[in-house]
């Protein structure tokens, strides 16, 4: 009996690790391309082209898939009723691209369903901007597949990840900012690729696809331009890389890939212990760590006369006054009217 069980477990393991093979794999191609799917003998392949998770109710693969424009193909193989992991590949056969490409694929309901979609107003939105109570104000995280292709059309990474809406009032804009997060529960805990040419990091926990906020429908680069301009003054900035974004094979415009400010950002760029930092949102709301030290700082400012040198000298022990001044000068110079 033990040997029979062992053989059965081996079979299950083999079936679950099997994946549909794509030939060629996703990328940028100069002409119409035929995509051939293959799987282990005895398997049946099913696929979708609308971003939804493929199942035995999806299109049954019989012949090569012809791509003459843009298409995202998601496929699984069933072997004796056991379903494999999903393989997702995006194809761009419509034109040449001069910017990196980010292709996000997810069940359409995760984005656009009235009840569960993170990109729509949903049931409970206010009637005026910024539509408080809308789905896009929720802190929901949805599973997705994210692919990045460089300027030459070569794949940088292709993996499962989590996505959530990001930003403030810019959530009400038609093109929204997304936070993309690598988590072990989706498969990999990092994006193993040097996303930003200005950094030396070879892997990232997360990144932002930013709609440029208040600069939306204008230059789409003003924020990145101003942060790069003040970088020589040692102001902490988010690295920047423009990219063309697609969602479920639909062109979604140019968005800015930016570093996400969190404990991982601080650990990478300032070599601090990510578990020993405090990160607060506007108005002092705790996001990571504790708000205790910040409240102590505010109390010190309220109760001490800063015209006295000894008080300023004490303040400088737990606050980088010079950096704070440089930061505010940068905000004033760049005319940032959305600084909180």
What this model shows, in words?
The protein is 21% helix and 28% strand. The strands form 4 sheets. A 7-stranded mixed barrel has the order 10-11-12-13-14-16-15. Strands 2, 4, 5, 7, 8 and 9 form a 6-stranded mixed beta sheet that branches. A 3-stranded antiparallel beta sheet has the order 1-3-6, with no helix packed on it. The protein has 340 residues and is an alpha+beta fold. A hairpin with a 2-residue loop joins strand 7 (70-79) and strand 8 (82-83).
How does the SSE layout of this entry go?
Blueprint: H1 2-17, E1 21-23, E2 27-28, E3 33-38, E4 44-48, E5 59-60, E6 65-67, E7 70-79, E8 82-83, E9 87-92, E10 101-105, H2 108-112, E11 142-149, E12 155-166, E13 177-181, E14 206-210, H3 222-230, E15 240-247, E16 250-258, H4 263-270, E17 279-280, E18 286-288, H5 292-303, H6 309-318, H7 321-333
Parallel strand pairs: 2-9, 10-15
Antiparallel strand pairs: 1-3, 3-6, 4-5, 4-7, 7-8, 7-9, 10-11, 11-12, 12-13, 13-14, 14-16, 15-16, 17-18
List the helices and strands in order. Answer: HEEEEEEEEEEHEEEEHEEHEEHHH
Instruction: State the shape.
Output: elongated
Question: Which whole number gives the mean pLDDT?
Answer: 93
| Biggest sheet architecture | 7 strands, mixed, barrel
Main sheet strand line-up:
10-11-12-13-14-16-15
Task: Give the structural class.
Answer: alpha+beta
Low-confidence stretches: 1-15
Radius of gyration (CA) equals: 24 Å
Cα-to-Cα separation, first versus last residue = 68 Å
